[in-house]
C-alpha cells in the first residue's frame, strides 16, 4: 500500500475505533509498516488539518473526532481530474488559497484506486505562472469578507495611478483568470471592482460594514451579466 491510500485507511481505522485510542504499535502492525512510518503519517495528517490527537502516558494512544472528518468519497477518474484542475486554478494569489491547499490534502487522502492515479498523473502535467497578489492583501480581503468588515486599500488603477480607498466588501468576481473584490467604495460613493493583483496594500479597520447586494453593485458595469458558477450551486441555498 502506497502512502496516499495508507493515509486514507489510517483515518478510517481511527474513525472506526473512536472514541477508543489506538497505539502507534497497533497501527504499525495493522498496516505492516514501521512505527516511524506511522508517526510520520500521523504528523502529515495533523499538518493537513485532520483532527487526529495523541493522548500521552500509560494507556495513551491516538484518536480522531469522527464528526470532523470526511466520510469515504468514491471519485471517478473524471471527477478526480476535474478536482485537480480546479485546485490548480486556486494558486497562491487566489482568495482562500491557503485553505484550498489543506482541503486538497484531505481530498487526496480520501482518493484510492484509479481516481488517485489519474489525479496524480494530471497534477504532474499542470504548471502555472505566479501572479503578484501579496499574501498580506489576500489575507486581509479574506478576513474582511468572512467577518463583514471595512477595508482600507491602496489601489493602483490600469493607468498606474495609486489612490487610497475605504471600501465595504460585498463579494468576489472571477473573470478570465483574475480575481476582483467587489465593494461599495466610500471614496467614490459607488460600487467598484478592485483587481486583487492591483491592490498594493489592504488594512483591516475592524469596523462592521453594512450588507450590500453583490448583483446590485455590479449593475451598470462590464460585469453586470455575471452569474453564480454552476459548480457552486450545491453549496448555496435557493434564492
Q: CATH topology of the largest domain, which one?
A: SH3 type barrels
Give me the CATH architecture of the largest domain, please. Roll
**Helical content band:** 25-40%
Give the N-to-C terminal Cα separation.
46 Å
Tell me the strand order in the biggest sheet.
Answer: 6-5-4-3-7
Form type: elongated
Largest pleated sheet: 5 strands, antiparallel
H/E series: HHHEEHHHHEEEEEH
**What is the number of helices?**
8
Domain count: the total is: 3
Low-confidence stretches: none
Average pLDDT score: 85
Specify the structural class. Answer: alpha+beta
β-sheet strand percentage = 15-25%
Rg: 22 Å
- The CATH first-level class of the largest domain comes to Mainly Beta
InterPro entries: CBASS_pafABC_assoc_protein, HTH_11, WH-like_DNA-bd_sf, WH_DNA-bd_sf, WYL_dom
Domain Helix-turn-helix type: 6-59
Domain WYL: 139-203
Protein name: YafY family protein
Please provide a written account of the structure.
There is one protein chain. The protein is built from eight helices and seven strands, in the order H-H-H-E-E-H-H-H-H-E-E-E-E-E-H. The protein is of the alpha+beta class. The protein has three domains: 3-68, Winged helix-like DNA-binding domain superfamily/Winged helix DNA-binding domain (Arc Repressor Mutant, subunit A, Orthogonal Bundle), CATH 1.10.10; 77-123, no CATH class; 135-225, SH3 type barrels (Roll), CATH 2.30.30. The strands form two sheets. Strands 6-5-4-3-7 form a five-stranded antiparallel sheet. It has a two-stranded antiparallel ribbon with strand order 1-2. A hairpin with a 2-residue loop joins strand 4 and strand 5 (178-185). Helix 4 runs parallel beside helix 6. The longest helix has 15 residues, at 3-17. The protein starts with a helix and ends in a 21-residue tail after the last helix.
Amino acid at each position: 500500500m502506497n502512502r496516499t491510500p495508507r493515509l486514507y485507511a489510517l483515518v478510517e481505522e481511527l474513525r472506526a475505533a473512536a472514541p477508543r485510542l489506538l497505539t502507534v504499535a497497533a497501527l504499525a502492525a495493522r498496516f505492516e509498516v514501521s512505527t516511524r512510518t506511522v508517526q510520520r503519517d500521523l504528523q502529515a495528517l495533523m499538518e493537513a488539518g485532520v483532527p487526529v490527537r495523541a493522548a500521552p502516558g500509560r494507556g495513551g494512544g491516538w484518536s480522531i473526532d469522527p464528526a470532523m472528518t470526511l466520510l469515504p468519497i468514491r471519485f471517478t477518474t473524471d471527477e478526480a481530474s476535474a478536482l485537480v484542475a480546479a485546485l490548480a486554478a486556486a494558486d497562491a494569489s487566489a482568495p482562500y488559497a491557503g485553505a484550498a491547499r489543506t482541503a486538497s490534502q484531505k481530498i487526496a487522502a480520501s482518493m484510492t484506486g484509479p481516481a488517485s492515479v489519474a489525479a496524480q498523473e494530471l497534477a504532474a502535467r499542470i504548471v502555472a505562472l505566479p501572479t503578484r497578489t501579496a499574501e498580506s492583501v489576500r489575507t486581509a480581503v479574506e478576513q474582511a469578507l468572512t467577518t463583514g468588515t471595512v477595508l482600507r486599500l491602496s489601489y493602483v488603477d490600469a493607468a498606474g495611478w495609486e489612490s487610497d480607498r475605504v471600501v465595504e466588501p460585498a463579494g468576489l468576481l472571477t473573470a478570465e483568470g483574475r480575481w476582483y473584490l467587489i465593494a461599495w467604495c466610500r471614496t467614490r460613493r459607488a460600487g467598484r471592482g478592485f483587481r486583487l493583483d492591483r491592490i498594493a496594500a489592504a488594512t483591516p479597520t475592524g469596523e462592521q460594514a453594512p450588507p450590500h447586494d453583490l448583483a446590485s453593485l455590479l449593475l451598470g458595469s462590464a460585469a453586470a451579466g455575471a452569474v453564480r458558477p454552476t459548480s457552486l450551486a450545491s453549496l448555496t441555498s435557493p434564492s
